[in-house]
Every structure is written in structure tokens, then in C-alpha cells.
From TrEMBL:
SUPFAM superfamilies: Actin-like ATPase domain. This is N-acetylglucosamine kinase. The keyword Ribonucleoprotein does not apply. The lineage of its organism: Bacteria, Pseudomonadati, Bacteroidota, Cytophagia, Cytophagales. Keywords: Kinase, Transferase. Transmembrane segments: none annotated. It comes from Hymenobacter setariae. GO terms for molecular function: kinase activity.
């Protein structure tokens, strides 16, 4: 039996593939190695795995996760997986590689993530060959949920949001300046907090203000990140992530404006990632 995981900082989506190819899905918490140790991952898995799952029967584990970049981060996660699934061959990789494999399979091309944050790459069908650093939500992440949420919060707090939308924003979240700043500067995971407000732009996507805000975010995504790839217009634009998927019409328009045709846009990679590994088997 094979286990394949798409791991974020908050949630990990797992797919168990049995010996007949049947798929079953479950979730655990996220295992970002910047915030959790090997021992913490082991303890969580032992608590969270379905009671019907026989860990000793797992022969292969493919885990792709957020912030699994450095050798030490890979080791943190891999050691935990090996401890829990002792009989399995374990592979641990970055979530950007998962996106590329889900979107492109074994074909070369361009892949991006547009969710809480953003990332992108050129992929040769096996590995990532070029990556332009998005610089994270402090300095960049244009087009991401955090970038859109930050613009909404800034306009709301400065009184630049249209009055009707500001009233709806206040009614939806019930947050005033001090509570917002406390979340940003004193509480953990401020990027998730900021990105959560991108849903407001989606819920009010017919409002001209929201249309323009999202269009500008995607325009900057292409101007500041995508256009830094040599010959980027020779690739189709393929994307995974809730922000890219929910705002796919605006994203398609932004890509066209920058001379890039759109290929595949999906919300989550897990189904296509499983198909990738089953085809390899």
C-alpha cells in the first residue's frame, strides 16, 4: 500500500492507495518543519492516523510539504515518516515539486502555486530547473491570498474601501484596528490571518473595487515574478491553489495581458499527484 501526502502548514491531505488501486483520503494537521520537530510529527501521526490504517503494511510514502527545502528540513520530516512507517520507502519533497508533478506530470513546463503564498518554477519533467523567489508575504508574494488580504486590510483601516464594502467587512469580521494589529504583530501565523481575508474579495467578486484589487494583484504577480523567467511566454501558465482557482477568470485575463496562454488551473494537487505516482508504478 502507498501513502501520498500534500502537506501545508495547517493541514495535510493524505491519500492511501491499496493494492487494488482504490483511493481513500484523510487529513491530519500540517507539518511545517519550521514549526514542528521530528518528535512532534511522530506524536501527531500516532494520534491522527485512522484507526483502520496498518502502518506496518505501508510500503511507500511520498510526502510533499511546505518549507521542506533544506537538507535539515527534509531530514526532520523524513525521520518522522520512517519512524511511523517503518517498513516503507520514504520520499520527502517540496510542495512546489508536488504542484509541478500534479500539473505537468512528466512533461516539461511552467507551474505555479497561488494560495496563502505564491511560488513558481520551470520544470523539466522530472525536477525544478528554475525558481524565482517570491520573497514571502513581507516583501513579495504578489497575487497570493496574503497579498490580496493585506490590500483589503490596509484599505479598510485607512478608510479607502468603499463605504458599502467597509460596512460588509465590519459585519463579516467584527474586527477593529487594535484587534487586527494584535493578530498581525503578537499572534502566530500572521500570513494565514492576512490571507483569510482574500475570501472577502471572492464573496464580493462582482464589486468593481474587488475586481480591480484582484486584477492589480495578478498584474503585479506577472510583472514582478513571472516576467523574470527567460522566455516565459513560450510556456503555458499552469497553477494550483485556492486563490488561483477561485479567481481563475481574473488570473486568465492577467496571463493573457502578459502574453502567456493558460493551461491547467486546479484547486488542490492531491488527485493528480496520486495519478502521477500510480502511473510511475
Amino acid at each position: 500500500m502507498i501513502l501520498i501526502a500534500d502537506g501545508g502548514s495547517t493541514k495535510t491531505t493524505w491519500c492511501l492507495v491499496d493494492d487494488h488501486g482504490a483511493r481513500s483520503f484523510f487529513h491530519t494537521e500540517g507539518y511545517n518543519p519550521e514549526f514542528i520537530s521530528t518528535a512532534g510529527i511522530i506524536a501527531s501521526l500516532q494520534q491522527s492516523l485512522p484507526a483502520t490504517l496498518d502502518a506496518a503494511a505501508i510500503t511507500e510514502v511520498y510526502y510533499y510539504g511546505a518549507s521542506v527545502v533544506s537538507a535539515q528540513q527534509v531530514t526532520t520530516v523524513a525521520d518522522a515518516m520512517q519512524a511511523v512507517f517503518a517498513q516503507a520507502r520514504v520520499f520527502v519533497g517540496h510542495d512546489l515539486l508536488a504542484a509541478a508533478r500534479a500539473l505537468l506530470g512528466r512533461q516539461p513546463g511552467f507551474a505555479a502555486i497561488l494560495g496563502t503564498g505564491t511560488n513558481s518554477c520551470v520544470y523539466d519533467g522530472e525536477r525544478i530547473t528554475h525558481n524565482v523567489d517570491s520573497l514571502g508575504y513581507f516583501l513579495g508574494d504578489e497575487g497570493s491570498g496574503a497579498f490580496i488580504g493585506k490590500a483589503l486590510l490596509r484599505d479598510y483601516l485607512r478608510g479607502d474601501m468603499p463605504a458599502d464594502l467597509a460596512a460588509a467587512f465590519r459585519a463579516t469580521y467584527g474586527l477593529e484596528r487594535d484587534a487586527i494589529l494584535d493578530q498581525l504583530y503578537n499572534q502566530p501565523f500572521p500570513n494565514r490571518f492576512i490571507a483569510s481575508f482574500a475570501r472577502f474579495a471572492n464573496d464580493h467578486h462582482q464589486a468593481e473595487y474587488c475586481k480591480q484589487l484582484v486584477a492589480e494583484a495578478f498584474d503585479l504577480f506577472f510583472r514582478n515574478i513571472i516576467k523574470k523567467y527567460p522566455a516565459y511566454q513560450t510556456h503555458t501558465f499552469n497553477c494550483v491553489g485556492s486563490v488561483g482557482y477561485n479567481f481563475r477568470d481574473a488570473l486568465t485575463q492577467a496571463a493573457a495581458a502578459h502574453g502567456m496562454a493558460v493551461g491547467k488551473i486546479i484547486s488542490a494537487p492531491i488527485d493528480d499527484l496520486v495519478s502521477y505516482h500510480l502511473a510511475a508504478g
